[in-house]
Amino acid sequence: MHSRITVFILVFFLSFSWQHTFSQQHPDLEKMPPVFKQNISISMKNVPFENFIDKFISETGIKLNYNRSRISLEQQISIEMKNTEAIAVLRNVMEQTGTALKIISGDQYVIIPKSDNENLYGKIRGRIVDIDNQRPLIGANVLIEEYKIGAATNLNGDFVIDKVPVGNYTLRLSYIGYQSEYIPDIIVKSKRTLFLDYELKETPLVGEPVIIRDNYFSDIDAQPVSATSFSSEEIRRTATFAGDITRIVSVLPGASIENEGNHLVVRGGSTIENKFYIDNIEVPNINHLPVMGTTGGFYSVTNLDFVRSVDFNSGGFKSNYGNSLSSVMNIELREGNREENDFQFDLNVGGISGQGEGPIDDGKGSWMLSARHNFSDIVLMLQNETNQSVKFNDVQGKLVYNISPEHELSILNIFSNDDFNENKNYAFNNYLNWYGGFKSAQNVAGINWKFLWSENGYSNTTISHIYRNEDVSLYTAVNESQRLRINSSESILQIKNDNFYRFNDAGRVEFGFDLKLSFNDLNNFYTRGLDLFGNAKPELRIVNQINTFRSGGFLSFEWIPFSSLSITPGVRLDHYDYNNNLNLSPRLSLTYRFSESTSITGSGGIYYQNLPFYILSQSEEFKNLKTPFAYHAVLSFSHLFADDLKLTIELYKKLYRDLPVDPNLYSLYLLDEALIQLFYDNHETLVSKGSGEAEGIEIMLQKKLSDNFYGAVSLSFLGSRYRDLNGAWRKRIVDTDLMFAFEGGYKLDREWEFSIRFNYSGGLRYTPFDINKSIARQSSIMDINKINALRFPDFNILSVRVDKRFHFTGSNLIVYFSVWNIFDRVNETWNGWSEVWNTEVEYDHFSIAPIFGIEFEF
Question: What is the pTM of this model?
Fold first, then answer.
């Protein structure tokens, strides 16, 4: 299989490369402005190149910029020229040093290696606004750190830096009275315009000012604790599964992707406790092949090239987020190119895709559109796995249009469908208990209206519609009888309104509401059988149409009594008509800055989350269940060792209450059921008498890309347990005790990059089978005296990746090769009971997997 993929990639590359050669541009020295025509005299012998540059600047008054890491300033030069034009003097020395000169926008002059002096440059455009009122900042400075060149924003907050040599850069954004920001990973591509939109936060001047050190770690929407932000470039280059959005969070402390799937577990929570937003639209599940009733799946639906940033909050989040017990992930998509039409073709293990973008109405708006089809069916065929079939596709697009300076509209649509089939022979040969098919479809459509209604405030209103359909038929391998039949659809209409207002330097307020109307059409069937304790389960049929309504409102206030102290109280009020529960969620955080580099934050609150409708719909009695909630308490310490190096230490405690428990399975943690058997089973009776707790300490050292190296190291000590109906405390499945992760890389130059990712954790806990009962009943029966008493071996996986960029005139190509689980580590992750073979079976994690990919932009 791998040799065929390699040949395909080579043929594809050669088919493009014959028509794209590196063209030589006429030196910019031939079109210098008149200031270079002045006569000067310079006499120097065997001196460093840098000495000549200083002398030339002093003689001519012309500022020459350069990047110390790109040219050799120590190389020796000699020159003897009198009454000679400055342009000729400069040409002489550049011939000696192998350098060239580029003219950047605004008559800024940059010395670059001669090898870079091809017709290979792009453009950086963008807009800078105030984070609180979204008004443009006029005269803000944008500086390319490597060359100390840049531009200033105009009356609309827009800036342009033209003719930037291709490569990787860091931008520094600054404005008087505002906190400066460094923006790494700015990739300039040949003949492409890079659009950037950024927000700067005003520096509070209350009482004794504490100057916040300029750094690469910006605050995430004033989120004080447990928050990390990733750019699309940081996600793309990670040595993981083809730039999957969800998997990158596994490098964060307290977060894990169980079995390297997309089953996100955060700080001892379950896979249902996570919330996802895409452009302010709440999306139930962002994965292909979603696991019913959870937020997990196989592979992210979102096109990474459309992503601007991903913000991940693992606890203590503000009151504008509701209906989540553990985490919130915000995915913000960028805008399309407002100047020109661009197109891209991608080929990787995730499939084949194409995309385009361009301007609308002379730059008043933009469009983006992409389509993708996976190759899983072809890969399985090459591996002779003809007994399995996996297909998924997605189409997504976004439109943005500025009606006026005060009104902006954006329209988003993401469609995905999946088809997975597994036949009886495969199930039989792989000791599986069931076979069958899974089909799903999801469409997310929404419109955002941003309205700048005041000099100090603005609002964002989102109206969205989500349609989901699941069609699942599972059969038992032992006798071919139907095990499960799910045929359900859900139509969700949502309205979300967020408002922001700044009173003064000392006070800001956020308030708003969200409404959710859900129409559910259910036709589900669960066969009779035995549960995990050997109890008889009756047959269950659900044929019903159920409509539900959920509403919520929030208020959050940030008060800065003096510059070193910030206090943020907030409150949510939510109502769910299905069970008529009304829940109040107060929250509070305080941040104190000891110095420009060191701060400490405490945060706490109450967090509610409705049970999945997949569970609630199983019985009318389940309307009487209480809404599970958790108390969060987080203490965070942060210190900047350097502008690009940050240490964070956090302690957290979560107390769960009103959790559902099945009296027939009195000692099991119900919300972990999907981690045991991949879906939630039917339950005849549930009571809201469960409780649990999770606690831990997390340490993270993160190095942003400011030179050639970047990376993050995290270490977590954690514990997660629950109390069963008999009052006994038991360890959770996800109680791994210890997690360690490292992710990093090195950019050799503008063309080569190397990255690595390593994850380690203590093994998941599991319950052994009661062998005698399981054999006698030919079914998986747990040993009720050893619930979660055993642990799998420690889990670890190492993956590496190499990227090679090719810059052509008017196009760009990226070829990458990654090896997932490079040492082919055998990680045991699950135990089961084969009903066909009537024996216990251990299942291992994915083996070594080479991953190839190409991205061609034109």
Answer: 0.88
Q: Residues 697-713, buried b or exposed e (16+ Cβ, 10 A)?
A: ebbbbbbbbbeeebbbb
Q: Is the dihedral of CA 284, 287, 289, 291 positive or negative?
A: negative
In 539-684, which ranges are E strands? 540-562, 565-576, 581-593, 598-608, 629-642, 645-661
Q: First vs last Cα of the chain: how many Å apart?
A: 29
d(CA 828, CA 132): 49
Query: Residue 393 has which token pair?
Result: 């596709």
CA angle 831, 837, 841 (to 5 degrees): 15
CB 278 within 8 A of CB 414: yes
Which two structure tokens, joined as six digits, stand for 247? 């998997």
b/e code 383-404 from CB counts within 10 Å (16+ = b):
eeeebbbbbbbbbbbbbbebee
What are the residues whose beta carbons fall under 8 Å from the beta carbon of 291, sequence distance 6 or more?
A: 263, 271, 297, 674, 678, 679
Give φ, ψ of 763 to 5 degrees. -65, 150
Q: What is the mean pLDDT of residues 74-81?
A: 90
For residue 724, what are the contacts with CB-CB under 8 A and spacing of at least 6?
661, 666, 667, 668, 690, 730, 787
CA 711 to each of CA 271, 353, 704, 759: distance values in angstroms, whole numbers, following the listed order: 27, 29, 7, 14
* The predicted structure's pLDDT at residue 218: 65
The DSSP call for residue 207 is S
Q: Which two tokens stand for residue 268?
A: 């001892």
Q: Strand, helix or coil at 271?
A: coil
Q: Name the band, by pLDDT with cuts 50, 70 and 90, for residue 451.
A: very high
CA distance 486 to 680: 12
Do 552 and 561 contact (CB within 8 A), yes or no? no
CB of 442 within 8 A of CB of 288?
Answer: no
| SS3 at position 739 | strand
Q: What angle do CA 839, 842, 845 make, to 5 degrees?
A: 155
Is the Cβ–Cβ distance between 791 and 800 less than 8 Å?
no
Q: What percent of the chain has pLDDT over 70?
A: 90
The position carrying tokens 């499945």 is 733
720 three-state secondary structure: strand
State the DSSP H helix or E strand holding residue 714, giving kind and residue range, or none if neither.
strand 709-723
CA 541 – CA 521 distance, rounded (Å): 13
